[in-house]
């Protein structure tokens, strides 16, 4: 049988923490994960500094931060660990990337907001908004593709996609809309960037993920002949996708 050469042939494996520690090319995966997480956090800071609104989750984070007099990054970390509780009913495994995401994205947001200037003028604001959305989607796919465990929010996305047998693009949109409504009701920073992010993130991840996924070839020194995900797992592309 001829192997499918298309990027969509790369699949996501729901690896346990033990398997992640024994997976092939671990240093490369760890580097890719941290690059993705750093870009993810900075992209969220770009959106906030654009002044056109934050990502749906950050609408919630900013609302809570204002009420509690804390930084957005601090609330991001706190909410991440709350979201991790939802991994239990989805049987989503907590991995290296899950914990790294929960902590480092929030740190990167605060660092980004320290070094990035606030947008002055609409053209710059729009440019920062668009760059933030694109960078966020690509960065999310980069760290998911490292296969060291999805972050709390992306674990919800991939977990629900697997359980419901649905593409992650639409699943992500539904999650973002639910969080957006909650954050808005609490008085978060809603803006045009919020809508662009909510609608654009899932498709960007879906398009990028096949190109940045590092396939699992060996576990604990043993070669595997095929992807370990169920055959019902949605494939990246028209039918499928932190």
From TrEMBL:
The keyword Transmembrane applies. It comes from the Bacteria. It holds the Pfam family DUF6198. Keywords: Membrane, Transmembrane, Transmembrane helix. The chain crosses the membrane at residues 26-48, 68-88, 95-116, 122-144, 173-199. The keyword RNA-binding does not apply. This is Membrane protein YczE. It comes from Brachybacterium vulturis.
């Amino acid at each position: 049988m001829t192997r499918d050469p298309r990027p969509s042939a790369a699949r996501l494996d729901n690896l346990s923490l033990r398997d992640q520690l024994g997976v092939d090319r671990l240093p490369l995966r760890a580097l890719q994960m941290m690059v993705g997480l750093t870009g993810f956090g900075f992209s969220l800071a770009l959106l906030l500094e654009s002044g056109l609104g934050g990502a749906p989750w950050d609408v919630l984070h900013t609302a809570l931060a204002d009420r509690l007099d804390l930084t957005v990054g601090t609330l991001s970390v706190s909410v991440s660990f709350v979201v991790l509780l939802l991994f239990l009913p989805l049987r989503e495994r907590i991995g290296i990337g899950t914990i790294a995401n929960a902590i480092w994205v929030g740190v990167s947001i605060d660092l980004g907001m320290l070094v990035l200037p606030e947008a002055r003028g609409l053209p710059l604001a729009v440019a920062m908004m668009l760059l933030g959305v694109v960078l966020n989607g690509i960065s999310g796919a980069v760290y998911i593709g490292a296969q060291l465990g999805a972050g709390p929010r992306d674990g919800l996305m991939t977990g629900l996609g697997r359980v419901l047998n649905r593409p992650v693009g639409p699943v992500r949109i539904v999650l973002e809309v639910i969080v957006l409504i909650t954050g808005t009701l609490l008085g978060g920073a809603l803006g045009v960037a919020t809508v662009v992010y909510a609608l654009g993130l899932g498709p960007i991840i879906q398009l990028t993920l096949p190109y940045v996924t590092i396939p699992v070839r060996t576990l604990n020194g043993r070669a595997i002949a095929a992807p370990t995900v169920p055959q019902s797992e949605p494939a990246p592309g028209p039918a499928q996708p932190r």
